[in-house]
Amino acid sequence: SKKELQVAIDGPASAGKSTVAKKIAHRFKYVYCDTGAMYRTVTLKAMRENVALDDPEALAKMLTKTEITFKPGNPEQLVFLDGQEVTMAIRQPDVTNNVSTVAAQGTVRADLTNRQRQIAEAGGIVMDGRDIGTSVLPDAEVKIFLVASVEERAQRRFKDNAEKGIHTPIETLKKEIETRDHKDSTRAISPLTQAKDAIRLDTTALSIDEVVAKISDIIVQKRKEIE
Ligand code: CDP
Ligand code: CDP
To answer: Any idea which UniProt keywords this protein has (predicted)?
Structure first.
């Protein structure tokens, strides 16, 4: 019988993780889990409730009464906070610019890591984030580390924004991406870093379909090996 795998996709901001992870999940009929959306949801709630974003105890207390759920949607997966839909709200620039501070708090990481492991327990999962291969799912059968140049990632975000009618200059986007990557890579607890057994894929010059094809080949190969 075929074992259903755990697929971990990590990398810096706007490397294409969620776009590719969703397509991989669809192709293999796996569940997709966007761990960045979970950190964003916690950040949104803390901002709404005026909980200090750098107070680990206050955030831990808030989390004991916080429910985060995903529901399938078309085309986007929907995100719910305490039963209320927040899919769009968690993508607002103020959440984006505060999320790394919240994500650096050990209490928040411990809580969300537990939730993520429960979601992934049965396998058949594609999970994307920053610390999936290194910390959340250290035994994942497939680990991918997606990278792209900061210029290319700023261009991609610029295009995404333009489609939504947002016109932040490329230089500003570049700075925001660099700031967030720096915070994520230098925090004390499970920083963004490539797992020793992860496969590094530079997507700067690759299309989405090319990236999906490469990762699909790796998954098919892995399934054969452990069949
Ligand atoms: O904007 P982008 O889609 O690249 O980011 P995201 O995946 O939505 O993640 C937002 C933020 O959450 C990151 O910048 C990290 O600070 C944090 N995060 C994390 O610390 N660990 C994860 N596994 C996922 C996200
Ligand atoms: O999840 P993460 O922040 O890593 O990136 P994303 O939101 O999935 O991707 C950012 C943008 O890059 C999306 O508009 C993708 O369509 C685009 N893109 C990509 O993901 N991969 C490529 N090889 C080329 C473009």
So the answer is: ATP-binding, Cytoplasm, Kinase, Nucleotide-binding, Transferase
